[in-house]
Design brief:
With 510 residues, this protein is an alpha/beta fold. The chain is 42% helix and 13% strand. The strands form four sheets. It has a seven-stranded mixed sheet with strand order 2-8-7-6-5-3-4, sandwiched between helices.
Length: 510
C-alpha cells in the first residue's frame, strides 16, 4: 500500500500543533449507537454521504483497486446473488449444502480454464488468503523445510504469509530489462530447506510473466513445491491468448507446478472477496486445511483462514461467471488487449515517459525521464480526474506509475493518453517533488517506536502532511499533492517505509 491521493494530503505548511481527526459531518449528528432504530433509507443516505470522497468504482478513471466490465446487468446479477446468500455461513458445509454445490461449480470452472480439470481447490476471500494457504500447505507438506524462494517482484502477500507462518523468505533478482525472475538465481537459491518456489503470472508491478516452465522444472528437480501467483492473470491470460496475445505456458498444465492462485474479483469481475486456490494434487489441498478436536465444543474443520464467513462473495462470483459466460469473457479479453496495446504505444510516444518491460498481461508500468517526475505526474492526473497508482522504487527498479487496464478502458484510452501527456508536460514544467534537505535521513534516524500516535501526527503536520484530512478522504483539496510524500517514502529504506505506513494506518483509525 502507498499513501494515495484520496487518503492523505501533503502541502507546504509551518509547524502546527496536532489536531485530532474530526468526525464526518454525519457522525456529528448521529450517535455511534442510536437509542432507537433507523430506517433503511436513512442508513443508505448516510452511506452515500460517507462515500462522497471515495474514488469512483465505475468508468475506468481509477486505474487500480477496481475492475469494471462496463455492463451494469452483470454487476446487478452479482449483487442480487450476493445478497441472496449473504446469511449462509460457510463454516459448516453439512449445514448449508448450497454453498458446497456453488463452490464445486466455481472451482471446477477455474480448474478447467487453468489446465487441470481434475484439480482440487478452495474458494477464499482474496489473493492474500489464497497465498497464505498455499504457503501453509507447502510448509506442512515438507516438514523441516522453512524457506520460500521468490523473485523481488512477487506480491508482499508471500512475505505476510511467511511472517505469520514462521517461514523464511529468500528473494532472488529479476532481469533488469525484462523484469522476469532470474532462473540462474532461482537455481542457486533452491536447496533442501526450500518448501516453496514462487513465480508470478504476471507480476503485479510490471505485468510480465515469469519463466514458469523453467522455474517449475528447477523446483521439481530439487523436490520443492512450485506455486504460480496468477491472482491477477489467472482469469485474464487465457482470454488474452484467445484474443491473439502471445501468452507463455503458466498454469497447472505445466510440469512441476503444484498450486496456483487466481482472483475472481479481479479479471473475473466478481464482487470483492472472491479468489480460488487450486492444487494439482488433492493430497496437497488437505495440507491447507485446519482441524481441531482438542476442545469440548462443536467440530472445527476449516478450509480457509477464516471460520465463519458469508457465502455472499461465492454467490456473487458464480453469478458473474454465469452472467458473462465464455463469450462475455472473450469480448472483455479482446477489448482489454486492444486497450493495452494502444496504451503502451501511446505512452511510448509521450516525451519523457517509457513503459517498463514488455507487459504480457493488462498491467502497464510507466517510468519517467527527461525531467518528468512520475509522482508529480500522478498529482497532475488526479487534478484532471484520473487516478494513476504510484509505485516506489525497489531493487534497482525505478519509481513508476501503474495502470490496470480493464474491460472499460478501451472506450476511454484516448482520453487517458491525453491526460497522461498533459500531466507529463505539467510535471516537466513544475519540476520534481520538493523534499526538504535531510528529511529522509531525519525520518530514517527516528525511533518511531518511541513516538505515540499523537506525536507522530504532530511530526507529520510539521512537514506539511495533513493526517486530519486523511480521515476525511483527502482534506480540503479533495486529493492530490502527494508527490512530496511519495518522494520521501521513495528515499527511505524498505523497513523504514513499512514503519511509516504502519504508523499512518494507526493514526488514521485513531
Amino acid at each position: 500500500m502507498i499513501f494515495s491521493p484520496s487518503s492523505i494530503v501533503a502541502r507546504p505548511a509551518p509547524p502546527a500543533p496536532h489536531v485530532a481527526p474530526s468526525p464526518h459531518p454525519s457522525q456529528k449528528e448521529t450517535p455511534l449507537l442510536p437509542d432507537h432504530g433507523r430506517t433503511a433509507d436513512d442508513l443508505l443516505a448516510e452511506l452515500t454521504a460517507l462515500k462522497a470522497a471515495d474514488l469512483p468504482v465505475r468508468g475506468g478513471r481509477v486505474t487500480a483497486y477496481v475492475y469494471d466490465t462496463g455492463r451494469p446487468g452483470v454487476h446487478e446479477a452479482a449483487h442480487r446473488a450476493y445478497a441472496e446468500m449473504l446469511e449462509v455461513n460457510m463454516l459448516d458445509p453439512t449445514a448449508f449444502p448450497s454453498m458446497v454445490a456453488l463452490e464445486k461449480r466455481v472451482i471446477g470452472a477455474a480448474a478447467e480454464l487453468l489446465g487441470r480439470p481434475d484439480a482440487a481447490g478452495i474458494f477464499t476471500s482474496g489473493g492474500t488468503e489464497s497465498i497464505m494457504l498455499a504457503v501453509k500447505a507447502a510448509r506442512d507438506a515438507r516438514p523441516g523445510a522453512t524457506r520460500v524462494v521468490l523473485p523481488v517482484t512477487a506480491h508482499p502477500a508471500f512475505h505476510k504469509a511467511a511472517h505469520y507462518l514462521g517461514m523464511e523468505i529468500v528473494p532472488v533478482p529479476v532481469d533488469p530489462d525484462t523484469f522476469q525472475a532470474s532462473v540462474p538465481a532461482v537455481e542457486a537459491a533452491v536447496d533442501d530447506r526450500t518448501a516453496l518456489v514462487v513465480v508470478s503470472a504476471p507480476s503485479y508491478p510490471q505485468g510480465v510473466v515469469d519463466p514458469v516452465e523453467r522455474i517449475a522444472a528447477v523446483a521439481a528437480s530439487r523436490g520443492a513445491l512450485c506455486h504460480v501467483d496468477a491472482c491477477v492473470g489467472g482469469w485474464l491470460l487465457p482470454w488474452l491468448r484467445e484474443a491473439g496475445a502471445e501468452v507463455p505456458p503458466f498454469d497447472l498444465s505445466v510440469p512441476g507446478v503444484t498450486s496456483l492462485s487466481c482472483d475472481l474479483h479481479k479479471y473475473g469481475y466478481a464482487p470483492k472477496g472472491a479468489s480460488v486456490l487450486l492444487f494439482a494434487d488433492p493430497a496437497l489441498r488437505r495440507h491447507a486445511y485446519f482441524a481441531s478436536g482438542a476442545w469440548p465444543g462443536y467440530t472445527v474443520i476449516n478450509a480457509t483462514v477464516q471460520s465463519s464467513r458469508s457465502a455472499g462473495p461465492l454467490a456473487g462470483a458464480w453469478a458473474t461467471m454465469q452472467s458473462l459466460g465464455r463469450e462475455g469473457y472473450r469480448e472483455l479479453g479482446r477489448a482489454t488487449l486492444e486497450a493495452t496495446r494502444r496504451l503502451v504505444l501511446g505512452v511510448g510516444a509521450i516525451p519523457g515517459l517509457r513503459v517498463l518491460g514488455r507487459p504480457e498481461a493488462a498491467l502497464v508500468a510507466i517510468a519517467g525521464s527527461a525531467g518528468v517526475d512520475v509522482f508529480v505526474l500522478a498529482d497532475e492526473a488526479r487534478r484532471r480526474g484520473w487516478f494513476l497508482q504510484p509505485q516506489l522504487s525497489y531493487a534497482g527498479i525505478p519509481a513508476n506509475l501503474h495502470i490496470t487496464v480493464t474491460g472499460v478502458t478501451l472506450a476511454g484510452v484516448d482520453a487517458m493518453l491525453q491526460v497522461i501527456a498533459e500531466s507529463a508536460e505539467a510535471a516537466r514544467a513544475n519540476g520534481p517533488a520538493k523534499v526538504p534537505d535531510g528529511l529522509p535521513e531525519l525520518i530514517a534516524s527516528l525511533d518511531l517506536d518511541a513516538l505515540d500516535d499523537a506525536t507522530f501526527a504532530e511530526l507529520a503536520s510539521s512537514v506539511g502532511i495533513d493526517l486530519a484530512g486523511a480521515a476525511q478522504g483527502g482534506g480540503e483539496t479533495g486529493g492530490g499533492g502527494m508527490a512530496a510524500v511519495n518522494a520521501v517514502l521513495d528515499a527511505l529504506p524498505a523497513p523504514t517505509r513499512e514503519a511509516i505506513l504502519v504508523r499512518f494506518l494507526s493514526v488514521l483509525y485513531g
